[in-house]
């Protein structure tokens, strides 16, 4: 029996004034996307309309999610609207699941025009949690400022959206599904693909899987404990670390993606990945790792819970890239880090005589450097590291780098870290997060602080805390000029740099899912003397933190007694 073509319907709507995407796309409370009529559809239409019609007609896009609540309903809407807006083919992960690194990988592999990722990263899931929509472009990386501005401008004047409300797909059935649409010459095609396979093929071409497998299976094998935190990485961990590389099945926990991530924020940090920390401290595991919801962030722990600061992690990777076949074959071009990340990577770059780029927060800046051949490895202090194999940070790739280093050096995590400090010095580093602040209070705090550090007299200031004296060398509101296209990013954070290379950084962020503003304070102090490399981070940085609190008056101005999170 011949079926009738599926009708394309135009629905009248009205614009929303709060759909400007940020560094991580558009994030709001899930109730906003689910409960506000047309809120989801408006934003999807804005994303699709931001693509030039000539490029959009018949093109291929990738769609995936971290499995959080409301993802399936959102994917159904995306499919229906993509069909109505001329997209020719959608490639979607099995059951709607694709990690952010896998989306980047697939976009690049099949030369798609872009991809839509449904994630709010490490923010909580469930009906009371957060939801996000992120658009990655043709290089596999996050949207540029120009693309995000185009999406926002469309959203401000949107009066209608196109949709095929009768189109239904089965996310559980692998393979191709085709649909005839009214007034369309070619059928609309949806391909449900294995969530792991393409990404696994890429990793096989990067790493020496035999060396890692031997590390995990040979006599005296390394015992590992991996916590996927009920995010999307679970199936990847099972397939790659357990099935492919031979780690015992009980090495991996919380590997079933859940809509609420088991009721905890899927954040790989000492604050939230407490079950991993406890397991490492209470057993004989030699290596532990946790991942966030969409699989782009990670945390590394060594034996007895030895914590690897993410800024140290990227520096140690950089110093040991020769252990990875991919870099032996392709060479290493340069390194990059976000401005707030510690300068540990700078010291490795200098020793290797390679360029070091300092960028604003946001992976899109790294993408430009990698596309132009300037950068091979990059990282952020927020537990994100990646290389030019894709254009996103990549948690599981980072874990495989660490396992490769351990296999090659035949050393444990702590010994590798301490030898790195002995060679390059230790950058003590921490971050204080003040979350859920009143946006106006946060704005005025940052404005007034900028006024203080911009005063000419500030550069001659000396701060005495106990027996420490810190002399200001320079202070500014960080501005970045992209060496590739000359684009300028202003107001990227307030920096105070002292004569002993210590630093304080203040940044305001709005990526908290509609839960107010976040002010982050970063403190860093360099120590060359190996005899002083085992001190408590908070003790070392206490004087700097005291200066930061005094300068900003953050407790008095926000009514807080301390930060929500310390990392």
UniProtKB/TrEMBL annotation:
<dbReference type="GO" id="GO:0000287">
    <property type="term" value="F:magnesium ion binding"/>
</dbReference>
<comment type="similarity">
    <text>Belongs to the phosphohexose mutase family.</text>
</comment>
<dbReference type="InterPro" id="IPR036900">
    <property type="entry name" value="A-D-PHexomutase_C_sf"/>
</dbReference>
<dbReference type="Pfam" id="PF02879">
    <property type="entry name" value="PGM_PMM_II"/>
</dbReference>
<dbReference type="Pfam" id="PF02880">
    <property type="entry name" value="PGM_PMM_III"/>
</dbReference>
<feature type="domain" description="Alpha-D-phosphohexomutase alpha/beta/alpha">
    <location>
        <begin position="199"/>
        <end position="305"/>
    </location>
</feature>
<dbReference type="InterPro" id="IPR016066">
    <property type="entry name" value="A-D-PHexomutase_CS"/>
</dbReference>
<keyword id="KW-0963">Cytoplasm</keyword>
<dbReference type="InterPro" id="IPR045244">
    <property type="entry name" value="PGM"/>
</dbReference>
<keyword id="KW-0460">Magnesium</keyword>
<dbReference type="GO" id="GO:0005975">
    <property type="term" value="P:carbohydrate metabolic process"/>
</dbReference>
<dbReference type="GO" id="GO:0030055">
    <property type="term" value="C:cell-substrate junction"/>
</dbReference>
<dbReference type="GO" id="GO:0005912">
    <property type="term" value="C:adherens junction"/>
</dbReference>
<dbReference type="InterPro" id="IPR005841">
    <property type="entry name" value="Alpha-D-phosphohexomutase_SF"/>
</dbReference>
<dbReference type="GO" id="GO:0004614">
    <property type="term" value="F:phosphoglucomutase activity"/>
</dbReference>
<keyword id="KW-0479">Metal-binding</keyword>
<dbReference type="GO" id="GO:0005829">
    <property type="term" value="C:cytosol"/>
</dbReference>
<protein>
    <submittedName>
        <fullName>Phosphoglucomutase 5</fullName>
    </submittedName>
</protein>
<feature type="domain" description="Alpha-D-phosphohexomutase alpha/beta/alpha">
    <location>
        <begin position="315"/>
        <end position="424"/>
    </location>
</feature>
<dbReference type="GO" id="GO:0014706">
    <property type="term" value="P:striated muscle tissue development"/>
</dbReference>
<dbReference type="GO" id="GO:0042383">
    <property type="term" value="C:sarcolemma"/>
</dbReference>
<dbReference type="InterPro" id="IPR005844">
    <property type="entry name" value="A-D-PHexomutase_a/b/a-I"/>
</dbReference>
<dbReference type="Pfam" id="PF02878">
    <property type="entry name" value="PGM_PMM_I"/>
</dbReference>
<dbReference type="GO" id="GO:0030239">
    <property type="term" value="P:myofibril assembly"/>
</dbReference>
<feature type="domain" description="Alpha-D-phosphohexomutase alpha/beta/alpha">
    <location>
        <begin position="19"/>
        <end position="160"/>
    </location>
</feature>
<dbReference type="InterPro" id="IPR005845">
    <property type="entry name" value="A-D-PHexomutase_a/b/a-II"/>
</dbReference>
<dbReference type="Pfam" id="PF24947">
    <property type="entry name" value="PGM1_C_vert_fung"/>
</dbReference>
<dbReference type="InterPro" id="IPR016055">
    <property type="entry name" value="A-D-PHexomutase_a/b/a-I/II/III"/>
</dbReference>
<dbReference type="InterPro" id="IPR005846">
    <property type="entry name" value="A-D-PHexomutase_a/b/a-III"/>
</dbReference>
<keyword id="KW-0597">Phosphoprotein</keyword>
């Amino acid at each position: 029996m011949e079926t009738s073509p599926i009708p394309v319907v135009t629905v009248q709507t009205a614009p929303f004034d709060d759909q400007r995407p940020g560094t991580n796309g558009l994030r709001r409370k899930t109730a906003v996307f689910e409960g506000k009529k047309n809120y989801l559809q408006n934003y999807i239409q804005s994303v699709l309309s931001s693509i030039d019609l000539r490029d959009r007609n018949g093109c291929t896009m990738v769609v995936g999610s971290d499995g959080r609540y409301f993802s399936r309903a959102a994917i159904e809407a995306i499919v229906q609207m993509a069909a109505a807006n001329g997209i020719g083919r959608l490639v979607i992960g099995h059951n709607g699941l694709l990690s952010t690194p896998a989306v980047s990988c697939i976009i690049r592999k099949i030369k798609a025009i872009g991809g839509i990722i449904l994630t709010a990263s490490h923010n909580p899931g469930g009906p009371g949690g957060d939801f996000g929509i992120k658009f990655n472009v043709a290089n596999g990386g996050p949207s540029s400022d120009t693309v995000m501005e185009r999406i926002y401008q469309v959203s401000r004047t949107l009066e209608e959206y196109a949709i095929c409300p009768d189109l239904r797909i089965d996310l559980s059935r692998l393979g191709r599904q085709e649909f005839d649409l009214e007034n369309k010459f070619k059928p609309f095609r949806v391909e449900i693909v294995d969530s792991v396979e393409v990404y696994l093929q890429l990793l096989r071409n990067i790493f020496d899987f035999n060396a890692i497998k031997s590390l995990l299976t040979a006599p005296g094998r390394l015992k590992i404990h991996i916590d996927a935190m009920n995010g999307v990485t679970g199936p990847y961990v099972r397939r790659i670390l357990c099935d492919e590389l031979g780690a015992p099945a009980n090495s991996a926990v919380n590997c079933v993606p859940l809509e609420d991530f088991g009721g905890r924020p899927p954040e790989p940090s000492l604050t939230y990945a407490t079950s991993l920390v406890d397991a490492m401290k209470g057993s004989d595991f030699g290596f532990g790792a946790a991942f966030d919801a969409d699989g782009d962030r990670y945390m590394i722990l060594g034996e007895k819970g030895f914590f690897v600061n993410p800024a140290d992690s990227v520096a140690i990777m950089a110093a040991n890239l020769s252990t990875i076949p991919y870099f032996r074959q392709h060479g290493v071009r340069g390194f990059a880090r976000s401005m707030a990340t510690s300068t540990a990577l700078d010291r490795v770059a200098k020793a290797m005589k390679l360029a070091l780029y300092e960028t604003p927060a946001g992976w899109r800046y790294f993408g430009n450097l990698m596309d132009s051949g300037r950068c091979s490895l990059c990282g952020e202090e927020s537990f994100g590291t990646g290389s030019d194999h894709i254009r996103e940070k990549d948690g599981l790739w980072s874990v495989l780098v660490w396992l490769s280093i351990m296999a090659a050096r035949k050393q444990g995590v702590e010994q590798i870290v301490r030898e790195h400090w002995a060679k390059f010095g230790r950058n003590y580093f921490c971050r204080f997060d003040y979350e859920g602040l009143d946006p106006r209070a946060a704005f005025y705090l940052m404005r007034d602080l900028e006024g203080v550090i911009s005063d000419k007299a500030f550069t001659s200031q000396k701060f005495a805390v106990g027996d420490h004296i810190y002399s200001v060398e320079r202070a500014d509101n960080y501005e970045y000029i992209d060496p590739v296209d000359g684009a300028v990013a202003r107001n990227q954070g307030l920096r105070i740099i002292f004569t002993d290379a210590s630093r304080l950084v203040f940044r305001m962020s709005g990526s908290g899912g509609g839960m107010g503003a976040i002010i982050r304070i970063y403190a860093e102090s360099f120590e060359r003397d190996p005899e002083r490399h085992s001190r408590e981070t908070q003790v070392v940085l206490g004087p700097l933190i005291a200066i930061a609190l005094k300068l900003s008056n953050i407790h008095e101005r926000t009514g807080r007694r301390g930060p929500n999170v310390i990392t």
